[in-house]
Design goal:
It comes from Cymbomonas tetramitiformis. The protein is mainly alpha-helical and 199 residues long. The N terminus and C terminus are likely disordered. It contains 10 helices and 4 strands, in the order ααββαβααβααααα. Helix content is 46%, strand content 5%. It has one domain: NAD(P)-binding Rossmann-like Domain (Rossmann fold, 3-Layer(aba) Sandwich), CATH 3.40.50.720. The strands form 2 sheets. The protein has a two-stranded parallel ribbon. A two-stranded parallel sheet has the order 2-3. Strand 2, helix 3 and strand 3 form a beta-alpha-beta unit.
């Protein structure tokens, strides 16, 4: 669960928390109909340029753990599952009114495990991590640590109330790798033109 203390250094995240708090208060006082759908980073075809950088890292034969071996578990969500999550809420809208529901993949990988899964999908042999500088080998490395900073969203409410069953990571990783190999146009995808809102 996000909190002000965790989000104050991230104005983008903080604004989302404030919006959710406002909607919750309005729902309580005026019965304004809302449901908060909480998602971590979305990964998949045409979804997240950060993955393309991770895939490029592996493709160059670089070591598997560019984050320095933090070992922090996290969850992301497959782009193909986002619509499923929204539809699940809409189909049970009366029961989900006023709730904040987390959706994410079932697996809880570390960044190293995420990269190992990606390497297998690419049919690449993982290279053992050592002492190295990720940023010297591939530009814009820092945003990749964002995955580790996500933490592990608790999806138990979605599972219990909406029978949430996300696509297995191995399956969506194979689809994601294929798209980034053959369909990724480069750049920052569609978010590039509006990313100034983060600054």
């Amino acid at each position: 669960v996000e909190s002000y203390a965790q989000s104050v250094v991230d104005s983008y995240g903080a604004r989302k928390v404030y919006c959710e708090a406002y909607l919750a208060a309005t729902h309580k006082s005026e019965r304004f109909p809302y449901t908060a759908i909480r998602l971590p980073s979305v990964v998949g075809a045409a979804a997240d340029w950060r993955h393309s950088k991770l895939q490029a890292w592996i493709d160059k034969g670089n070591p598997i753990d560019p984050a320095g071996g933090k070992g922090t578990q996290f969850r992301v969500i497959y782009s193909g599952d986002v619509a499923t999550a929204v539809l699940a809420v809409l189909r049970r809208k009366e029961e989900t009114l006023g709730l904040a529901i987390n959706f994410a993949q079932a697996e809880r990988p570390t960044l190293a495990e995420y990269l190992q899964c990606c390497a297998r999908a690419m049919d690449k042999k993982p290279v053992r991590a050592g002492f190295f500088s990720y940023s010297q080998s591939l530009p814009d490395a820092e945003p990749l640590c964002n995955y580790e900073n996500q933490g592990v969203l608790d999806t138990s409410l979605a599972q219990k109330l909406l029978a949430w069953e996300p696509t297995p990571m191995k399956t969506w990783m194979e689809e994601t790798v294929e798209w980034h190999k053959n369909g990724f146009p480069g750049g920052d995808l569609a978010i590039g033109g509006i990313d100034n809102i983060r600054s």
